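Whiteboard transcription, Tuesday session. T.W. wrote the structure tokens on the left side:
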């Protein structure tokens, strides 16, 4: 169960996607991020952002870093 604003540690070399559907990797990331809204999108991906205060803010494109598959979270 993931929630809006939840802090997640992302494994090294994790693929970041520009959308829930795309198969092309935007770049690879690691480190600490926050769940934008905690809602699962297609392909088990979640929107992440870099700061807790960005969670849920609009416009989405300005605050969401990208989409990451939940199985890349170190829990």
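and on the right, the sequence the group agreed on:
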């Amino acid at each position: 169960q993931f929630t809006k604003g939840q802090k997640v540690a992302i494994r090294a070399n994790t693929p970041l996607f520009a959308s829930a559907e795309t198969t092309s990797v935007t770049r690879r990331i690691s480190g600490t991020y926050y769940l934008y809204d905690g809602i699962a999108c297609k392909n088990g991906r979640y929107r992440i952002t870099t700061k807790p205060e960005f969670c849920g803010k609009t416009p989405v494109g300005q605050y969401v870093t990208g989409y990451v598959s939940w199985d890349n979270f170190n829990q």
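Someone added at the bottom: Residues 7-74 form a domain with the SH3 type barrels. fold (CATH 2.30.30).
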